[in-house]
Structures are given as structure tokens and as C-alpha cells.
Amino acid sequence: MYTNQALRIHAYGGPEVLQRDDIPMPVPGAGQVLIRVKAAGVNGLDWKIRDGLVRDAFPLPLPAVLGIELAGEVVATAPDAARFKTGDCVMGPLGGLGAYADFTVVDEAKLCLIPAALGDVEAAALPVATLTAWQVLRAAGAPRPGQKILIHGAAGGVGGFAVQFAKAAGATVVATAAGASRAHVLGLGADAVIDRLAERFEDKVDGIDLVIDLVGGETLDRSWAVLAADGAIVSTAAPDIAQRAPAGRRGVWFMMQPDAVQLAQIAGQVAAGSLKSTIAETIGRSGLADAIERNKQGHAPGKIVLDLTL
Ligand SMILES: NC(=O)c1ccc[n+]([C@@H]2O[C@H](COP(=O)([O-])OP(=O)(O)OC[C@H]3O[C@@H](n4cnc5c(N)ncnc54)[C@H](OP(=O)(O)O)[C@@H]3O)[C@@H](O)[C@H]2O)c1
């Protein structure tokens, strides 16, 4: 008999609201598979939900299991779910919550097989960050060679892939990051890195065709000044970007869409070594509450990943 331990929030608040609870084993519904979760990526949405910042946009019955992406093993399938079989190792974004548990159910359409060369922790670092980076670069139109792209938050999970995808598309990439992350971001291929703590990016760049805003706040508000006349800002961090855009400026709010085909292609690139994935740290379940807080306050470059086998 298996138990299913989940990491749930019981109220909105700080790290203290996250608790470990035994919960019932979920049953896969139509088109779903039951996953034994091996690893799960930590994301900004974890603390935004925990703090209650998105409670109006995503009303949530509490207690709620957090976690929006995973890697794990298929242990059961719904009668109409045929893409995977028991024992398959899969990865994906959930398109919802529930990854911080020993077992969870996921729409099989959102998942892909983990390439043989990748472990569970490596796989769990990829779904949200890679799909967001790939899609956000295309949200205002296809990237084109010679385009000047400014990426805010380039040292983070999404930013690290956005830098690489933008360079692969032939763009000139300027990134903002803390000085301590400069070498990391240059190593991903950025043409220039502006130390966000020591310099003002608007003093350093102008004529930017596309700003990828992974930060929001005043970083976004200061970014309109560096745009080319027909430039655009796409944000993953400021849902109200359109209202904040000055007259005549184009601001696009972006939300990642699960895409199993795209994810499989990108994971294949990581497995082949042609795309770099950086894991900032791997934590066990006792370290999750603090890790979500570090994701909010600042962390080493790359992704924090929860290893549920620890
Ligand atoms: N809408 C969507 O579908 C979607 C999907 C994924 C993520 N997101 C959101 O997108 C944002 C980025 O996600 P992520 O997973 O990449 O987060 P992350 O891993 O925490 O990375 C953010 C990075 O931004 C850097 N940073 C912090 N303040 C900055 C500033 N003022 N200027 C420039 N860089 C700054 C930090 O690195 P340094 O300290 O080294 O500079 C930090 O590591 C989060 O708000 C997340 O919730 C949205």
C-alpha cells in the first residue's frame, strides 16, 4: 500500500504555510495518467500563489498542493489514455498544480518521454523554463537574424534558455543580471551583460527591437525608453503590461502553453549537449519551503529542483 505525501499550503502567507500532509491517492480521469513524481521544478508561481498574489486570477480551494512541472514514472493510465504505458519515464508542465506530491495525475497530452541521457532532476528543470523561453521569444512575432533583443532576468530559469534561443535565431542579445551572474550569462552566449545592480540599462542600450521582461516592476517601466520605434516588450511577469504601456507602445502579456512536441525537441537538445541547462540547486522535501522563498528573494543562476527521492 502506497502513501502519498504532498507539500501543501493551508493558507496564504510566508514559508510557514507549507506543510507536509498525507493525502489520498489520485485517480486518473479521462486522458490522464498517474505519475509517481521523482522530481519537480521550483517556479516563481509557487511563491506568487503562496503569498496570495494571484488569488483573484487563480482562485484556489485550500489546502492546495503546489508545483507546476515534474519528471516521474507512469504508474497507471486512464482507460482512454494510450500515449504512455506503465513504467515510462515522463516529464512535463502540469498546466495546473500538484507536482509537489509523491503521486499526481496529469493530462497525458502535456507529457513527453524523458530522453535516456537525462535524469529525473535534469528533466524536471526543463518543462516550464524551456517552453516559456521558446514561446515568449515568438509572442510578438518570429525572431529574426540581426534583431536586437534585451533580456531582463537572464540568469534565471527562463532567461538562461531565452538567451540561448535568441542567439540561435541570429539575434544580438543584451542581458541584464546581477554582476555575480555575468560570467554565467556570457557563457550562455549573450553578446553583452549589464550588471543590473551597478548600472542602468537605459544608459547602455537603445534601439531595442524586442525586450523580454522576466522581471516586471520598475525594470519593465524603465524599458519603454530603450525600445526602437516599432519595438515591443513581452512580459512573463507583469500581467498588466498592456495597461502600463505608454501611448503608441506595444506591450504583450505572455503565458506559457504546454506543448509536448516542442518539449520533446528541446529536451533532446539538452540531452545532446547543444542546449545548456543549469541547475542552481537540488533540494529534498524538507528544504522546499525555504527553496520557494529563495526563488522569490534571489538564487544562484538556473533552476532550483526538488528531488522527491531524497
Ligand atoms: N507567464 C508565464 O507563463 C511564466 C512562465 C514562467 C515563468 N514566469 C515568471 O517569469 C519570471 C521569471 O521566471 P524564472 O523561472 O526565470 O525565475 P527565476 O529563475 O527566479 O529568475 C529570475 C532571475 O531574474 C534576476 N533578477 C531579479 N531581479 C532582477 C532585475 N531587477 N533585473 C534583472 N534581473 C533580475 C535574478 O537573477 P540575478 O540576481 O542573477 O540577476 C533571478 O535569478 C517569474 O516572475 C516567473 O513567475 C511566467
What would the keywords be for this entry?
310 residues; alpha/beta; Quinone Oxidoreductase, Chain A, domain 1; Rossmann fold; 2 domains; seven-stranded mixed sheet; six-stranded parallel sheet; 9 helices; 28% strand; binds NADP nicotinamide-adenine-dinucleotide phosphate
Could you explain how this protein is built, in words?
By secondary structure, the chain is of the alpha/beta class. It has 2 domains: 5-129 and 257-307, Quinone Oxidoreductase, Chain A, domain 1 (Alpha-Beta Complex); 140-253, NAD(P)-binding Rossmann-like Domain (Rossmann fold, 3-Layer(aba) Sandwich), CATH 3.40.50. The protein has helices spanning 44-50, 120-124, 127-136, 157-168, 182-187, 217-221, 241-244, 260-272, 288-297, and strands at 5-9, 18-22, 32-41, 64-65, 69-77, 89-93, 103-107, 112-113, 148-152, 172-177, 192-195, 208-213, 227-235, 250-253, 279-283, 303-307. Strands 3, 5, 6, 7, 8, 15 and 16 form a 7-stranded mixed β-sheet that branches. Strands 11-10-9-12-13-14 form a 6-stranded parallel β-sheet. Strand 13, helix 7 (241-244) and strand 14 form a beta-alpha-beta unit. The longest helix is centred in the last third of the chain and has 13 residues, at 260-272. The chain is globular, with a radius of gyration of 19 Å. The protein starts with a strand and ends with a strand. Residues 43-45, 128-129, 132, 152-153, 155-159, 176-178, 181, 196, 214-215, 219, 236-237, 254-256, 295, 298-299, 301 line the site of NADP nicotinamide-adenine-dinucleotide phosphate (NAP). NADP nicotinamide-adenine-dinucleotide phosphate (NAP) binds at residues 43-45, 128-129, 132, 152-153, 155-159, 176-178, 181, 196, 214-215, 219, 236-237, 254-256, 295, 298-299, 301.
